Every structure is written in structure tokens, then in C-alpha cells.
Inverse folding.
């Protein structure tokens, strides 16, 4: 392996990247940097995000800038505002010791005037989203006549976002003797058009094979009935207490719904999609980067440009239609030498898609069995115990109160204290899973599974039905009175709910005429109550999301069991 100096990188740049912790070049850098430092070399690099591609094109470009010509000499085009800011930030870091070198990001969704002012002050490298750069060209606020290097980063993404014509337009304003560099995670056919039209004999560099998923990503799928998808998502989150990942949905509406459900159920989650304002999206992304959110529910488009290195999981709540999108999504985990898991929650109709993706990424998916309530509780307990073992004890802070705590707990032995600690942390979870039905694998699918699997499911199925007889979670356990609808509410005796307080809660939440309440069945952690059929919708709409007993009320028609 060569050093950065041996690849020809100038000492002032090496100094800056060394400070950033770059000790040795990454493979894409080893291939691309010497090529770009030579003259007249064009490069097509098939490289996923996270491979070090920004430095691969960034270092040679910066090194070739002539500082005294205070005019744009390099243009980097990228699909999103976030990526634009990130690339410009990286280039600024790399050029820390190149005096007076100026890099400016220009992107849509923010004041064009301030970007114009910044450009007027002079710039050497423009990092831009295509639409905004065209706006600036049309206003004659940028002159690209001295541009020698053009980088198309995440070219496949730019094409899939419909920037093809914008790229043509921008290139028509840059002298033809420019050098072009194209970076892409996949090679859809549109890329061939660009390379054929604009590039002269480019070096093709492949880091990882075409359309291949990242090496250290484990691909799994769970085959479930469509109605159970959300329950399975919750189980997977519960089974992985330290999960830090993105849940991809197919539509903005579904994204918002799943995020709302997760939040309502007490998960550390939020949504990211195109119906949010730029300020809201920035805020969510920042929270996610800081790990204040564990599960980010997002659409493909909104998640573009969100760059987080150490995601543990990518969950496909809805599989994308094409292999490229799957590769992009799953390439967000297993980065920077870490391992990651890409999980698809699929129903029978999507079986074909799994096969197609397997062919595209040249890897096979493992089939996962949805963890049982018992397995989940065990995992959570051990994770908690593990944290307990490793927690930093702040002796000084607590030394004053410890003696009185010891005195108060004096009558309990160590085993008792451990039991109480665990019960305090886990009673709710254990109760939930005790009462929840196990999740069935779709019947048709089971026929093709090995016998062991079928038996396990049969046993689970029997257990499930036993539970149903005693009134399982959300299964109402009894038929409602004629003319009445039976509703499920996520509050129970443990929360302090009584028939009286339930009626009070209804009266407080529902505006207009009062609703008669029929039979009320209070259970430990949830309850059922009946209201006249014609009022059911109004009750559900008015009470859902209301805060009561320190919880957010979730209410829905009870499923008949
Ligand atoms: P990129 O693919 O450009 O987004 O880079 C992925 C991550 O790797 C970023 O966090 C970079 O800062 C980091 N990185 C890039 N090159 C190196 C290197 N030679 N050594 C260590 N880290 C690097």
C-alpha cells in the first residue's frame, strides 16, 4: 500500500488530512488520486458512499487549483443539499493549509442572494446541486470559462432525480477541454449516455463489483402477513435494543404513519420525508446524527445525502422497485469497516422481488424467524444487565445519599434487589409480550419451509389460540352487544384506569354530544369498551393521541377473535 505522499499528494494537503485522521489511502483513493493528478485523465469510478470517494476526487482537484486566478476552476455536481454541504465541508477541511483557497456550496432551498454575494467575493471550487447552479448561470452571476475539472458525484442519483437535462445545460457553459470525473454507486443505462457523450477514453475504476451490495452487510428478510408488518418491525426494534438505523417506506404518507405509530408506542423514532419543511428536515437529521433518534423512518428521496457512518440496521418496510435503490439503501450500513444488517420485511407477493435483488447484488438473503416474545425479553434483559455492568459510577456525586439508601434497602438481599431492579425496568415489556400473540408466518410460505420450522410455527399457533381464548392483545375475546362497537384502548389497570376515569377521559376528549358507554372490560395493560356503532368513528378520532395517565392514548376497533 502506498502513502498519500507516494500517490503525489502535496505536503500541505497531507498535513490537513493527517490531522483528520486519514493515515493511509483507501482503495478508491489509491486508484483515483494518481490518475487525476496526471493530465488529461478522465475517470469513471463505480464506488459506493463511504468508500472515501470525496477525498479521491477532492484532493487532486484542490491540488490543481491556481490560487491567483480567483475564478471557478472546478465544479462538483451532486444530487442533494446535504451532500453538497458535506462535500464542501470536506474540501474546506482538506484545504485548511492552502492559503486563500475558496470553496463555496450552492444549493436550492436557501437564499440565492447570499449565495450570489459569496460568489461575487470570488471562488475557486463550486459544489452545487444542478438546479441552483443553472439559476445562477441564468442570472449571469457565475462564469465557468476557467473550469478545468467537473465532478459528477452520485451520478446515478442525479439521473434518477431527473437532473439529466440540467447536467447537459451546465456542461454547455463549460469549455470542452475540461476533465470529467464521474462517481456512481451503480451503473444504470443513463450513465452510459453521459460517458459516451461527454467523456474521452475514461479510466474505469471499480471499487466493489457492479451493483454489488457492500461486503460487510448481512441481508435478511422476514416473510410475514401484510397485516403483521408493523408488529414485526416493533419486534425487530425490541430484539435489537441498540439499534441505530433507517426504516425505509415507499410513500410519504406511509413514512409519517409508521413514524407516528412508533412514537406513540414509545420508540425513539422520527420521520423524514418531502412534506416536511427544510428546517424540519435539518432538525430531524441533526437529531439522528446526534443519536437522539434511534430509528429514522424515511423515504428514499429524503434520505439521500444523509451521511451517517455507523448505522447498525437498514430496514426495508417496503422494498424498492429496483435493485439500484436497494443497493443505495443497504449501502448505508456496514460502512467504515463496520458490519451492518439490511432487513426486508416482506409479504408473500414480494417474494419475487427478493429473488430479483439477490440476482442483482450477487448475494443471498437469509430468512429470519420473527423473534418470539420470550427471545425479545431475554435480549432486552441481557442488554440492560450489560449496561448495568459497564455503567460509570460517579462515586463523589452519590456518596452523600448512599448511606440512607443502604439503610432503606437493608432488609433486602442482593438477589431481591436484582429482581426488583429488573421488574421495575421490564414489567411493562414482559406483560406486553406475555399478552401478545406470536406472529404467524404466512400459511402458503410454511408449506415450503423445513419440518422443524413448520412445527415451531404450529406450536406457536396453538399457543396463540390458547391465549386468544383468554382474551389476547387487541383481540376482543368476546362479541360486542348488537348495535355497539367494541373498542380497544392502550390503557389498563396498571395505568390506573377505572370505569369512572375512562368515562371522564371520554367526556373530556370528545366535543359535542355525550356518548353512551356500553360494557367496559378493564385488563392489566389495556382495556375494551363498547360505544354505539354510529359513534365509534367519532370516539376513535377524538381520543386517539390524547395524553392521559402519562401516556399517549391509542384507540382502535377491537379485532374479533
Ligand atoms: P466518503 O465516501 O467520501 O463519504 O468517505 C467516507 C468516510 O471515510 C468519511 O467519514 C471520510 O472522512 C472517511 N475517510 C475518507 N478517506 C479516509 C482515509 N484515507 N482514512 C480514513 N478515513 C477516511
Amino acid at each position: 500500500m502506498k502513502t498519500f505522499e507516494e500517490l503525489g499528494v502535496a505536503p500541505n494537503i497531507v498535513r490537513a488530512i493527517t490531522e483528520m485522521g486519514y493515515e493511509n489511502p483507501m482503495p478508491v483513493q489509491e486508484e483515483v488520486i494518481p490518475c487525476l493528478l496526471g493530465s488529461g485523465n478522465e475517470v469513471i469510478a463505480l464506488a459506493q458512499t463511504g468508500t472515501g470517494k470525496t477525498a479521491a476526487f477532492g484532493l487532486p482537484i484542490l491540488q490543481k487549483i491556481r490560487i491567483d486566478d480567483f475564478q471557478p476552476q472546478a465544479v462538483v455536481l451532486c444530487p442533494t443539499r446535504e451532500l453538497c454541504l458535506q462535500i464542501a465541508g470536506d474540501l474546506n477541511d482538506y484545504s485548511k493549509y492552502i492559503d486563500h483557497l475558496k470553496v463555496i456550496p450552492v444549493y436550492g432551498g436557501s437564499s440565492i442572494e447570499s449565495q450570489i454575494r459569496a460568489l461575487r467575493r470570488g471562488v475557486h471550487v463550486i459544489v452545487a446541486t444542478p438546479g441552483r447552479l443553472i439559476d445562477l448561470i441564468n442570472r449571469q452571476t457565475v462564469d465557468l470559462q476557467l473550469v478545468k475539472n467537473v465532478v459528477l458525484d452520485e451520478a446515478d442519483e442525479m439521473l434518477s432525480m431527473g437532473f439529466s437535462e440540467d447536467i447537459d445545460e451546465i456542461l454547455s457553459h463549460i469549455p470542452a477541454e475540461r476533465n470529467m470525473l464521474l462517481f456512481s454507486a451503480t451503473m444504470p443505462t443513463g450513465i452510459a449516455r453521459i460517458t459516451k457523450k461527454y467523456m474521452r477514453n475514461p479510466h474505469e475504476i471499480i471499487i466493489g463489483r457492479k451493483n454489488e451490495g457492500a461486503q460487510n452487510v448481512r441481508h435478511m428478510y422476514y416473510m410475514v402477513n401484510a397485516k403483521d408488518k408493523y408488529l414485526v418491525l416493533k419486534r425487530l426494534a425490541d430484539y435489537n435494543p441498540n439499534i441505530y438505523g433507517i426504516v425505509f417506506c415507499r410513500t410519504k404518507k406511509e413514512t409519517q404513519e409508521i413514524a407516528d405509530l412508533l412514537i406513540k408506542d414509545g420508540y425513539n423514532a422520527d420521520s423524514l420525508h418531502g412534506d416536511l419543511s427544510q428546517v424540519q428536515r435539518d432538525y430531524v437529521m441533526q437529531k439522528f446524527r446526534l443519536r437522539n433518534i434511534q430509528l429514522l423512518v424515511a423515504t428514499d428521496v429524503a434520505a439521500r445525502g444523509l451521511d451517517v457512518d455507523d448505522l447498525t440496521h437498514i430496514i426495508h418496510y417496503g422494498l424498492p422497485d429496483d435493485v439500484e435503490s436497494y443497493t443505495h439503501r443497504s449501502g448505508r450500513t456496514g460502512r467504515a469497516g463496520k458490519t451492518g444488517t439490511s432487513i426486508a420485511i416482506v409479504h408473500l407477493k414480494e417474494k419475487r422481488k427478493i429473488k430479483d435483488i439477490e440476482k442483482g447484488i450477487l448475494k443471498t438473503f437469509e430468512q429470519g424467524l420473527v423473534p418470539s416474545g420470550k427471545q425479545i425479553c431475554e435480549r432486552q434483559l441481557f442488554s440492560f444487565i450489560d449496561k448495568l455492568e459497564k455503567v460509570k459510577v460517579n462515586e463523589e456525586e452519590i456518596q452523600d445519599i448512599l448511606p440512607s439508601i443502604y439503610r432503606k434497602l437493608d432488609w433486602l438481599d442482593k438477589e431481591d434487589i436484582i429482581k426488583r431492579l429488573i421488574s421495575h425496568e421490564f414489567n411493562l415489556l414482559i406483560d406486553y409480550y406475555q399478552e401478545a400473540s406470536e406472529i404467524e408466518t404466512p400459511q402458503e410460505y410454511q408449506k415450503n419451509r423445513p419440518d422443524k420450522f413448520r412445527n415451531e410455527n404450529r406450536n406457536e399457533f396453538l399457543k396463540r389460540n390458547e391465549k386468544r381464548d383468554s382474551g389476547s392483545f387487541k383481540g376482543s375475546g368476546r362479541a360486542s352487544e348488537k348495535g355497539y362497537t367494541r373498542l380497544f384502548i392502550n390503557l389498563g389497570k396498571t395505568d390506573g384506569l377505572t370505569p369512572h376515569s375512562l368515562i371522564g377521559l371520554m367526556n373530556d376528549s370528545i366535543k359535542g354530544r355525550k356518548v353512551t358507554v356500553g360494557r367496559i372490560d378493564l385488563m392489566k395493560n389495556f382495556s375494551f369498551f363498547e360505544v354505539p356503532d354510529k359513534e365509534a368513528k367519532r370516539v376513535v378520532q377524538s381520543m386517539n393521541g390524547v395524553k392521559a395517565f402519562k401516556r399517549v392514548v391509542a384507540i382502535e376497533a377491537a379485532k374479533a377473535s
Notes: The domain at 217-367 is CATH 3.40.50.300 (Rossmann fold). The CA atoms of residues 272 and 298 lie 5 Å apart. The chain has four domains: 11-206, 217-367, 373-435, 471-557.
